[in-house]
Amino acid sequence: MSDFDHKIALVTGAGSGIGRATALVFAREGAAVACSDIDTESGEATVRMIEDLGGTASFVRADVSVGSDVEAMVQTVVERYGRLDVAHNNAGIGGLGKPIDGHSLSEFERTMAINTKGVFHGMKYQIPQMLKQGGGAIVNTSSMMGLVGLAGISAYSASKHAVVGLTRSAALEYGSKGVRINCVCPGIIRTPINQKYWDEFPEAEKEWLSIEPIGRYGEPEEVAEVVAWMASDEASFMHGHALSVDGGATAQ
Amino acid sequence: MSRLATKVALVTGGGAGLGRATCLAFAAESAAVVVADRDAEGAAGTVSLIERKGGSAVSVETDVTQASDCERMVAEATSRFGRLDFAYNNAGMGGEGLPTHETTLVHWDALMAVNLTGVFLSMKYEIPAMLETGGGAIVNTSSIRGLVSYPDLSAYTASKHAVFGLTKSAALEYADKGIRINAVCPGVVKTALVEQSYARMPGFEERSLALHPVGRFGEPEEIAATVVWLCSDEASYVAGAGLVVDGGWVAQ
Asked: Stretch A41-58: mean pLDDT, rounded?
């Protein structure tokens, strides 16, 4: 495949996990990739990984929970590359590992600010640029927890359900204007976010495996391939969809 | 591209519409294709289209409502090509366009036999062949009617919901045995089958088009690309999913 030759892709949360893997796949397929992250060091590391493989990439720092950061991020991409064809709004934080009565309001709000409002901000500033060019494709990161719940991560689950709703509504608004919008719902993936959770709650690493009918956790690369495909022309009639990449978890 | 070289794919309803487009898409990726269809002439037509492009294919006259036919089509794959890696269980028939109380038992039984029992029988014989070689991938044709309904299509809707349920259950049974099983849920694609249905049901076409946020019907090739992708290793963590390819219909 070289589906993304001459295309400009933007990935938020590109400094680790699914975001980094997606940035690498976009680059492999020929896109110039703007790698955004709140953490400069890890975002720049992704850029170096792409450059070491002969690809084109650059870093742009943004805290997706801050609207002006996201506006500046999109502006920077357009200044650097002249356009924006593909965006993966992926930056997010994990669950808290405690029941609702143990969630503080500030923890809840922080989860929503990054996981949900961050996606809103992303689309809000990406879409006008895509409309200006006559089209584009957006993939948002939801989660299997955007479709079902799991004890101990209610704020996370709420934030990811909201991403599905936001994706569907946005899809209806821009479908006939050439901007395709979908989201991906990963199951339990071996990302640094989950690793951190498992370090804190070691029993969860074993317990969660029972959620996965495929008998293993997913790898970030397996989600990245799905995101890249959804953003490609092969998925030209896919719009407003929440695509499960979860080893069968939500089939049960 | 030849993502699927040395692989063997079987497609039911391969003589026309989505099935034919998918046969061609498998062949374009260098897979050998078994084209099963009740319409021997249609199946042979697909085979000659593939052979003309230098591909490898064989046709098998198959009525998916007959267990012995399904057994034979799988045997054809293993005897001609030595194995079976992918199956797209797609043979189906359309709705009658009548409200539930006017739907005849004859129509109900005929439709269920093809759309649902046909998928069951196909998987029943495909799965053992795949287990023998350590795995494979199956995609069943559900529909957006497997997720939401529309007036005057109750038998069709019931059959397609059932295909999705069957897909999920089968996915759970074989996920850890190397067989990934998913469904594709197309929106309206203007195949010959749909043209016939619209001819029988005045007004359906206009109303249906109005429900597609992208403002057009899908093309068979857009579904075919999805099916082939679901079978490829790029979709290695996708199991038990109903992949919606509908131009945004069910997002609303």
From this structure: 98
In a domain, B1, yes or no: no
Say whether residue B184 is in contact with chain A using an 8 A CB cutoff: no
Q: Residue B113 has what DSSP assignment?
A: I
User: Is residue A243 in a domain?
Assistant: no
pLDDT computed for residue A2 by the predictor: 54
Q: Which chain A residues are Cβ-neighbours of B241 within 8 angstroms?
A: 243-246, 250-251
Tokens of residue B216, six digits? 């057009």
Residue B250 lies in a domain: no
The edge-to-edge listing of strands for the beta sheet with B179-186 is B57-61, B32-37, B8-12, B86-89, B136-141, B179-186, B242-245
Please check the confidence at residue A53 and state whether its pLDDT lies above 60: yes
CATH number at residue A203: 3.40.50.720
The domain of A18 spans 8-233
The sign of the dihedral angle between the CA atoms of A24, A72, A180, A144 is: positive
CA atoms of A119 and A1, how far apart (whole Å):
28
Look-up of token digits 């892709």 = A9
Residue B3 lies in a domain: no
pLDDT category at B153 given cuts 50, 70, 90 is: confident
CB B43 within 8 A of CB B15: yes
- Using CA coordinates, name the residue in chain B closest to A244: B241
**Domain, as residue range, for B90:** 8-245
**Interface of chain A toward chain B, CB-CB under 8 angstroms:** 1, 167-169, 171-172, 175-176, 186-187, 213-215, 218-219, 222-223, 225-226, 229, 234-241, 243-252
Is the full-model pTM beyond 0.90?
no
Q: What interface predicted TM-score (ipTM) does this complex get?
A: 0.71
What mean pLDDT is predicted for residues A127-140? 96
CATH code of residue B61: 3.40.50.720
Tokens in use for A247?
């080893």
Instruction: Give the three-class secondary structure for A243.
Output: strand
Question: B141 pLDDT band (50/70/90 cuts)?
Answer: very high
Question: What number is the average pLDDT over the span A16-23?
Answer: 98
A130 phi and psi angles, rounded to 5 deg? -65, -40
User: What DSSP element (H or E) covers A157?
Assistant: helix A154-174
Q: What is the DSSP letter of B116?
A: I
Q: What pLDDT sits at residue A153?
A: 86
- Residue B15 in any domain: the answer is yes
| Total of domains in chain A | 1
Q: DSSP letter for A145, please.
A: G
State yes or no: pLDDT of B111 exceeds 70: yes
Number of domains in chain B: 1
pLDDT surpasses 80 at A197: yes
